[in-house]
Amino acid sequence: MREEKKLITAEYLARLNASPFFIAAEYTGMTVSGFTELRKRLRGAGAEVHVVKNTVFRAAAKEAGITDLSSALTGQLAMVTGKADIFAAAKVVKTFAKEFDKPKIRFGYLGSQALTAEEVGQMADLPSLDALRGQLAGLLLEPAARIARVIQLHVDKTTGGEVEQPAA
Q: Which residues does 81 contact at the CB level (< 8 Å), separation at least 6?
């Protein structure tokens, strides 16, 4: 392998190792301004997109332990990686594709688990990680809130709804 390809392979490998996921999207026909807008939106979601050379990316993926990409790496592909969660990145790509008809999600990986385009799309439809955490916190706090309401009803019932004010 030529020296330039070794450097690019090392760069791809570093991105793969730093990211818990990647999403492959075909960007054929996208304009430079469209690609720039996609980059901007992904940056807001804690992700980034890079055009890749398929043969070099295949070598980097193999070094990262992803070996079954042979037939999947065809056409003009860009890889979305990030340090945050895949859900936010998938949502940005899916929303962008609905608006501009490009890019087309081809497949993805979460850890060592291969994902189809449909699975990546389903992840995009899920609430964000922060929203899920909020829902979980609400579920965990609900029993305590119910107990507090029952106690307050009992206090209101026994005091006739009046609360004594402390003497000043």
A: 15, 16, 18, 19, 21, 22, 47, 48, 50
Do residues 28 and 101 share a domain? yes
User: Is the Cα torsion angle 33, 4, 19, 70 positive or negative in sign?
Assistant: positive
Same domain, 89 and 149: no
Number of domains in the chain: 2
Specify the DSSP element, H or E, that contains 106: strand 104-110
pTM for this prediction: 0.72
Residues of the chain with pLDDT under 50: none
Burial of 133 (0-12, 13-18, 19+ CB in 10 A): exposed
Is 167 a domain residue? no
Q: How much is the pLDDT for 92?
A: 93
166 in any annotated domain: no
- Side by side, the strands of the sheet bearing 113-116 are 47-51, 77-82, 21-26, 104-110, 113-116
